[in-house]
Fold this sequence. Notes:
Largest sheet: 4 strands, mixed
CATH architecture: 3-Layer(aba) Sandwich
Order of helices and strands: EHEHEHEHHH
CATH superfamily: Metalloproteases ("zincins"), catalytic domain
Strand content: 15-25%
Shape: globular
CATH topology: Collagenase (Catalytic Domain)
Radius of gyration: 15 Å
Number of strands: 4
Helix content: 40-55%
Strand order of the largest sheet: 1-2-4-3
Amino acid sequence: xxxxxxxxxxxxxxxxxxxxxxxxxxxxxxxxxxxxxxxxxxxxxxxxxxxxxxxxxxxxxxxxxxxxxxxxxxxxxxxxxxxxxxxxxxxxxxxxxxxxxxxxxxxxxxxxxxxxxxxxxxxxxxxxxxxxxxxxxxxxxxxxxxxxxxxxxxxxxx
Length: 158
């Protein structure tokens, strides 16, 4: 499998199971978006609530903990032209608070794997230029997210 994710840990212990979920989800995202032949990859940092709060404050001026942050390197129009990009390049950074993933899995009544997978696919689509501020955009983004998760059979628990 080609390198799709560069995974780092910020004040957090390495975990092979998390890495398997992340790589599996991103691989499917790249397949769905026709990017598997490119040399593009995503930088992912797994961290704790304190660090994600600092980053959220530093880069977004929001002094609040969050579950996931996404920092795209390209505009949506640029990404569309890069699907077969042959230079190794990160399309952006995704930072995930693992503690928030655990809390939200319990809160929403599904598995840790489902919540982590959702954070990854959600961050991926932000890097691809999607957003959920406007309701119409939110519908498009949610459909894309659910498509990837359904293809992987990482479903909501009933």
